[in-house]
Structure formats: C-alpha cells, structure tokens
Specification:
single chain; about 300 residues; mainly alpha; two-stranded antiparallel sheet
C-alpha cells in the first residue's frame, strides 16, 4: 500500500468495512460514482476515508429508492440531496396513493366475488384521475340540467355534489361507492329519470318560493309525519292518510300538482345517488326518505281529489 499517506483500503477491505459486496463497490467505482484515490503496487484500486463516507451515502440513497442516475448526479454535485429527496417524496406519495387504491379495489373484488370482466371495469374506474372522475359527474349533471335556468339551487347543488374525489387513503367502501356511482350515472334510464325530476323541480320552483331551504323543510316534514304514520301502520289508501295529507299540505292544496312533482322521485336509485356522494366525500349520509315519499305518492294517487 502507499507509504506515509492517509489510510487507504482495497475493495476487499472496503467491503468488509461497509458490509457491501465487492461486486457492488467495483460497479460504483467503474461508473465513476466512487473513484479510487490511487493504486497499490500490485495495481489494486485504493480508497480513503472520504470514499468510505461516499460509499455510505451511495448505499443510503439506493436504499431510499433513488435511481442510479439520481445517485450519480448527487455525487457529481449536479443536484443536492434535498432536491432529489423532495422529488422522490412526491413520487413515493403517488405510489402510495396507487397502492392504497389497489388495496381497496382488491378488497371490493373479494367482497363482491367479482368476475374477470367486472374486475377489469372496477380497476379502470377506480384509477381514473380526479379530473376524469369530475368529468364523468359533470357530463351527467350537464345532461340533467341542460336548458333549465330556474332549478331550485339547493336541488341543483345536491345533484352536482362535491366533486366525487376519492381521498388519498380510500376505504374499500369509498372505492365501492365510486364504482357504483360511475356505473349509475352512465345508465341511460337513470339519466332520463333525473332529467324528469329536474324538469319537474324547475317548473315547481318557478311557481313556488325561491327560498332554497324550502325544499329541505318540506322533505324533513314529509320524513317526520309520514314516517310516524308508517310506524303506526297507516295505509296510504285509508281515511287517516287523507287527514295526514291535509295536515301536511293544508286545505285546498293542489294535490295533483304535488303528485306530478313527487311521483317521479321515489325511485330508490335517486336516494342511492346521494348516499354514494356522501360516502365518497366522507360526510354523513342523509337519512333515508325514499320510503316516506313512496308512501306520499301512493296516498296522493288515492286522495288526489280530496
């Protein structure tokens, strides 16, 4: 070895000191990431303490998942460790999000006992970007509200909902809800149903109060009064139902007009749409009112002229 100089190491000694294979050290030396400081009398490459530190940095960066090119650039001082670490964090975040979605999709597949075709569709739907998911909902709502300028703003906002964006760590339930929502809004029958509801809502909103909370107040009152009547076993075609309609709507109310409005809405798919939005966006699901409105529509059909 070189006399009267700083301590130096051969590749074999360096391997024993760092715990890295000789082949790995030789590779890093060959590509210029770990240049030797000299040669022994026998022609063997020699490395000093700085090379040991440099090799420890190489190992650390590689263990953190940095590419060979990134490691080379760090060692050549073309980029700092902090800069490459920040870029790598972003890449890891994207990988983690993808893995979480994959985990949730697999859980959904296992729970649904999905076949090959459904598995492929579910995976494609779940992996759509946020922009692509928003576009699916926008296309649906644009068709539902096309040309309707007088829609109740509360109803309009509810249908559009918050952008159906899966969180960074979606639960299997949220992935399942998003897949079901995407399938639902692509169904032509459901689109036609929501269009009829929007048209009826628009007409009634022009004729009634423009207060957005009016819709909510009426829905809560229906859920309360009709729900209690259902618990008591009141049939929609009985005399007690007629009295309840009077209590709910008042005397002289245009029951036929109300039937036109609610007669198309008790479809359970409508309520399911709002439930799915709630699940995806992580807010509390609205209480079910579908059964109450179904009862209301049935009672109005019987007592429409009362």
């Amino acid at each position: 070895m070189i006399d009267d100089g700083p301590e130096t190491f051969t590749i074999g000694q360096l391997a024993r000191r760092t715990g890295l294979p000789v082949r790995t050290i030789r590779y890093w030396s060959d590509i210029g990431a770990l240049p030797p400081v000299g040669r022994s009398h026998g022609g063997y490459r020699l490395y000093d303490a700085e090379c040991v530190a440099r090799l420890e940095l190489v190992r650390t960066l590689r263990e953190l998942g940095l590419s060979l090119d990134d490691v080379r650039r760090v060692l050549a001082r073309e980029i700092t460790v902090a800069e490459v670490a920040a870029a790598h964090v972003a890449a890891l975040d994207a990988q983690i999000r993808a893995l979480r979605v994959s985990r949730a999709v697999l859980s959904t597949i296992a729970r649904r006992q999905s076949d090959t075709q459904e598995t492929t569709l579910m995976n494609e739907l779940a992996r759509l970007s946020a922009r692509e998911r928003k576009q699916i909902i926008d296309d649906f709502t644009d068709e539902v509200f096309a040309g309707l300028d007088d829609t109740n703003p509360h109803f309009h906002a509810r249908v559009r909902g918050v952008a159906a964006e899966l969180p960074d760590d979606p639960t299997p339930l949220q992935v399942d809800a998003w897949i079901e929502l995407a399938e639902l809004v692509e169904d032509e029958g459901f689109r036609a149903l929501m269009r009829r509801i929007a048209e009826t809502n628009s007409q009634s909103f022009r004729e009634r109060s423009r207060e957005p909370q009016a819709y909510l107040g009426f829905a809560r009152e229906v859920a309360l009064l009709v729900g209690e009547a259902q618990e008591r076993g009141v049939a929609p075609d009985g005399p007690e139902a007629d009295a309840l309609l009077t209590e709910l709507l008042g005397r002289g109310a245009d029951r036929a007009a109300l039937l036109d409005r609610v007669g198309v809405s008790p479809d359970l798919r409508v309520e399911r749409y709002f439930q799915l939005l709630a699940i995806i966006n992580g807010y509390e699901q609205p209480p079910s009112a579908a059964a109450a409105f179904q009862w209301l529509a049935a009672a109005l059909r019987v007592h429409v002229g009362s």
